[in-house]
Amino acid sequence: MSDSAQHAETGATALEVEDLRVSIDGTEILHGVSFSLAAGERLGIIGGSGSGKTITALAIAGLLPRGAVVTGSVRANGRELLGLPDRELASIRGDRIGMVFQEPKTALSPFRRLGAQMTEALAIHYRLGRAERRAAALRLAAQVGLKDPERMVRAYPHEVSGGQRQRAAIAAAISASPGLLLADEPTTALDVTVQRGILELFTEITDSESCSLVCITHDIAVVNQVAERVVVFEAGRIVEQGAVREILERPQHRVTQALIAAAGSEAA
Hints:
The chain is of the alpha/beta class and about 270 residues long. It contains 13 helices and 10 strands.
């Protein structure tokens, strides 16, 4: 039995989202979204562009644009996140919730070495000294499969490949051992071979670190590789959810059927 399955059996819940609604400039764009995530579980959120999946992740992490109105409930390990002051949310991000964004080239600063960026959350939350921070950077680089960690921690983002940048971004997200990892389209800009390695890395991290994963994507093939359960979005609503295998074999909603058909045509 996998670690994820063992965690799920205990009944521990890493994330609970209930009746989540988000309005921007007076227009509601997320309409009563509800789902939960067991400790150690890997959940896929899938949908087309503008379906609300990224807005959901930003709402969970408290990163919505200023002026957005959010109602409902988001609880991480039983703690309500909605309504927390920005300072408290900032202390939770990186420490308890890690985020991996779609394009590491923009998520990473071009002016700072990768090692410094990998250990930023550690430096903020644990005030590591210079030697401790360097040791942590080397450990993280090795953990995410970056070859020649000594060279990688000294490199700048433009000096490495897209896959290496994404691995560095993942290292930064997991550096403080968060219980929840949010990955927003983490493989979109990568070729198929590199993508497979990144998804395998997510599986390794959740299994070894007892970390829960929410992977947001438009690609059902990605969900099939990395997730155990899937939530399907359309127009700011959840239209279907369930175990990945069940959804792939017996999709009920036309949106799910179209996503599966698109993945099949791309693979052909």
